[in-house]
């Protein structure tokens, strides 16, 4: 199966997810492409699992070797992953994860739901801590734009994507609890000095939750 064949196969599944769960089609397809290597990963082939969601699903799981990032370093581990009956079941389980969150934070992924701009959806999933890969957002964006996946972001005759006119919004970061200026600078490949200058910050050690920071 070619990459385009994979994309065409899951487009109708992803559009059903968008209509039912309000999660953008292009964003979900890009995640599936990236995390399953366009449906060719062992997990996608043996467990119908496109997103690397760990644990068990209706009592079914499969153990696979995977990569994680610990303190910025890539490591390999063996882990149990959910096993599904179909790719659509995998897509729907991801959508339910976004809606239901995790045991310690039911609203962890809420910012993704209802987002109609793929740039912001990619940005938000990174900020929500969905993936340990620091370049996850950029990789999703590259896939969406390379294969023009945004053309599938429609409900009826209404196009949802409005990327160009609000792209600037993706260059603003909202400070969260536990953030430091140095950590934000590392995450977005900039410097503390640059953030201080852009945002007229008098004391780099004092930033508040909810504060909006320009990144560029």
TrEMBL record:
Residues 171-215 form the LysM domain. Pfam families: Glucosaminidase, LysM. Gene3D superfamilies: 1.10.530.10, DNA polymerase, domain 6, LysM domain. InterPro entries: Glycosyl_Hydrolase_73, LysM, LysM_dom_sf, MGlyc_endo_b_GlcNAc-like_dom. One of its GO terms (biological process) is defense response to bacterium. The keyword Isomerase does not apply. It comes from the Bacteria. SUPFAM superfamilies: LysM domain (SSF54106). GO terms for molecular function: amidase activity. Keywords: Antimicrobial, Bacteriolytic enzyme, Hydrolase. SMART domains: LysM, LYZ2. This is Peptidoglycan hydrolase.
């Amino acid at each position: 199966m070619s990459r385009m064949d994979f994309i065409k196969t899951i487009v109708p599944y992803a559009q059903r997810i968008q209509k039912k769960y309000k999660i953008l089609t292009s964003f979900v397809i890009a995640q599936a492409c990236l995390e399953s290597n366009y449906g060719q990963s062992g997990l996608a082939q043996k467990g119908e699992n496109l997103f690397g969601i760990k644990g068990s699903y209706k009592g079914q799981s499969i153990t696979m070797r995977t990569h994680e990032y610990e303190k910025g370093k890539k490591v390999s581990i063996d882990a149990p992953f959910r096993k599904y009956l179909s790719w659509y079941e995998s897509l729907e389980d991801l959508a339910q994860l976004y809606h239901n969150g995790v045991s310690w934070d039911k609203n962890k992924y809420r910012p993704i739901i209802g987002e109609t701009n793929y740039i912001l959806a990619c940005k938000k999933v990174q900020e929500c801590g969905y993936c340990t890969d620091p370049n996850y957002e950029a990789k999703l964006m590259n896939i969406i734009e390379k294969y023009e996946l945004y053309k599938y972001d429609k409900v009826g005759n209404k196009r949802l994507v409005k990327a160009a006119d609000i792209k600037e919004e993706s260059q603003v970061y909202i400070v969260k609890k536990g953030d430091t200026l140095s950590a934000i600078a590392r995450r977005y490949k900039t410097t503390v000095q640059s953030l201080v200058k852009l945002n007229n910050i008098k004391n780099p050690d004092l930033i508040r939750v909810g504060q909006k920071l320009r990144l560029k």
